[in-house]
Write a structure and sequence with these properties.
The protein is 29% helix and 24% strand. The chain has 757 residues and is of the alpha+beta class. Strands 3-5-1-12-9-10-11 form a 7-stranded mixed beta sheet, sandwiched between helices. The structure holds pterin cytosine dinucleotide.
Amino acid sequence: MRGNRVEDMRLITGRGKFASDWNAPGQLYGYFLRADRAHAHILSVDIQHTVKYPRVTHVFTGMDAINAGYTRMPHTLRFPGINGTQALAPLRPALAHGKVRFVGEALALVVASSAAAAQDAADLIEIEYRDLPCVVRPEEALAPNAPRLHEDVPGNLTLETEAGNAQDVEKAFAVAAHITRLKVDVTRVAPSPMEPRACLVAYDTVNGEYTFNLCMQGVTTLRKQISAYSQVPEKLLKFDVRDVGGGFGQRVIAYPEYCALMLAAKTAGRPVKWVSSRVDGFLADAHGRANVIDAELALDRDGKFLAMRMHWINDMGAYLAPSAPGHIRNTRTCMSGVYHIPALYANYRVVFTNTAPISSYRGAGRPDIAYAVERLVNQAAAELGIDMVEIRRRNFIPPEAFPYRTGTESVYENADLPGMLIKALKLADWDGYAERRAQSAASGMLRGIGISCVIENTGGAQESEQIELKLDANGIVTVHTVSKSQGQGHETTQAMIVADALGIPREQVRVVQCAAGSTLEGHHTGGSRSTVGAGSVCYVAAQKLIEEGKALAALELKLEPSQIRYAKGEFYSTEIDRRLKLADLAKSGEKSVIGEGIFGSTFPNGCHIVELEVDPDTGVTRILSYCVVDDCGVIINHAIVEGQLHGGIAQGAGQVFGEHVLYERATGQMLTASFMDYTMPRAGWLPAPSMEVHPTLSTVSPLGIKGVGESGCTASLPALANGVLDALRALGILHLDLPLTPSKVWHAIQVARKALP
Ligand code: MCN
């Protein structure tokens, strides 16, 4: 079904309510003073002038955070390390104490009766530092004499872990006819949702409850994390959140600022509101990716893959963010890509640097591994003189091999990779490419074609997901969920699932996400799991309402439950003409059911083909066409799925062509802390993608669905980079690291031309 999203009219007519739109009577305003240097001991913090500044009511420093016990940020990097070790998780006081470890780390909170006064007064805080050398590159952080960030983390190594079977891989490499080697940098990027972070915290002195209005991706995860950080029981943490302007993973987690604001609201006895600036966001919101990967692929003489080995260095920034396991979990889960690779081995060294913490960002490791594998496969094809389509075809996991257990012990559910490839080649008119390339060459342009074939895990809940349906006497069904849409259109798709299951018009169903005080359990929106998880439970809950309704209808209609049928909002009997409307179940009061379930991982997959031209005189890349064939199982709403893919592809294009968080090596200062310096993707970069589907149905979900929210991002990163390198290969350029900016590409072309005979 194509169709408008029910939330759009509210959102595009300015009637959304975002985090900074919340206000409370008598509220105060907070401003965070942030570290202006990357690594230093804090010798003293003098607030005497600040506290006397007009309208300032309170100033909080690291000592206050220590005294409150707000020091242990929770984390989820719970993988067994080599030799039975565990990730070393240093303390992170909600306001820095003793040391600052990255530029932008919050170290004091000024509270005043106006936001401007709080900001002005923060300038008067005098801090005496003793500077320390810093390290901002993860490989350098592992060097023997690198500056050490945390006393309790020797060598800045928080965790070393591995996956797969090193011995099998060794054996396969020993007999390989060819080995392809590639080192790639999956660059650090700033997720940059449209809505900057904001948070209003109120404390109720009577019952000890805190109420938060902030931007988030779901209430349950945030509540657990803030509770763990502050040691305030979960039942005393309430959230009231309406609209969220983008998240991309960055809004999942508890940030130290939230706990500092709790401290302020409790001490002041008044609500305290903080709205971050875009610069704050660049400096202190979690970043994404930041992995360096050494990859090797062993092949036999027919170009069949024998084994793959990868050594990862995962940059975590200065502290472990509450949610950073994707770098290991998802890269391990999807390591085989879409290929049958008999032996796999990966080693991960997870390190601290003097940079902002890293967390999950759209794809959470899946774009990283897809990028490494698909670049490696293209390079192997070029080295062996095998066509890049043929090498893929030769090594695909065949449809009959599903469910397929990979060498890193994950089980891919199902896919038809050869069928998908055929469709994609046709959609992209692959056969006509040579002619188009010749045309481009005739006008002095370097044309390239890029392909990626990817598979990724979506869904995969560890805890039960709950959905409550409330039916009223007018037949309106309200769906209560705890996942939160940040733009994915859940108000539309979840309503569609319930309406279709109940056979009632969509207008009769409305979705309420994360209602204040809700005690439902479930996951946040992330890992493209809302449809596989919460969506499936919407269906389960609707079935439960029908089943309970049948029992009630039997009583009402004086029939046996087995005689009752249900369709299109009515209970009826096929034997006697007696009927009861769904709405009648709520005649004497609202009828409520809670559906629940746990749904495992599904594996959407896709093939992306891009055609582009590089202008050798300017280094500018122009994308000419972008084709997608996607398998996300049954589709609930085609327009939303297309939108999700399109947005994800644009995000991939951002990372490939411009986005890159840069820190100056010597000082640790961020060089890209504004949109003047950090290149976001532009609408004109990408033509409207041509899309087709090639579904294989998931058996994990009763709806046959697989997730789609991250797929565009995962596949576009390798497709676009492969396209540019294909255009440059004739000049002898075999590798460039992201981002492929015009100046980088232009310089590479100049160097390559000089080297040509
Ligand atoms: N859908 C569908 N049919 C399917 C699969 C999905 O109609 N077979 C619809 C869903 O019902 C939902 C949307 O597509 O409306 C995305 O669904 P899903 O794949 O389940 O992903 P989530 O809803 O869990 O969204 C999470 C995913 C992630 S992890 C990030 S990060 C992300 C993303 O989605 N961040 C986004 N998409 C985003 N889109 C916007 N606008 N803003 C973000 O911050």
